[in-house]
Amino acid sequence: MNNVTVVDHPLVQHKLTILRDKSTSTKTFRQLLREISTLLCYEVTRNLPLDPVQIETPLMPMSSRKLSGKKLVFAPVLRAGMGLLDGMLDLVPSARVAHVGLYRDPESLVAVEYYFKAPTMLSERLVIAVDPMLATGNTAVAAIDRLKEHGASELRFVCILASVVGLERLHAQHPEVPVWTAAIDPHLNDHGYILPGLGDAGDRLYGTR
Question: For the chain, what is the total number of helices (H) and then of strands (E)?
Answer without folding.
Answer: 6, 13
